[in-house]
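hey can u check if this looks right to u? its 74 residues, i copy pasted from the old doc so theres a chance i mangled smth
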Amino acid sequence: MEIKVYSTPTCPYCTMVKQYLDSKKVEYKEYDVSKDREAAAEMVEKSGQRGVPVVEIGEDIVIGFDKKKIDSLI
């Protein structure tokens, strides 16, 4: 299952999401939407959100740092 994390370097919740996934030994691909305009547009198209973090797990989207939802999808 592919996991994408759309984030920015200054977002504390983005850091928390990545640390949480790391603690679960889950591999993910990180996209810095502050620098990657294509990834930013993709994130907005998929989630309808401009805020970060947005986590894409397979076909599902998790907005923010929602441990319960992340756990149910990984």
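The chain has a mean pLDDT of 94.
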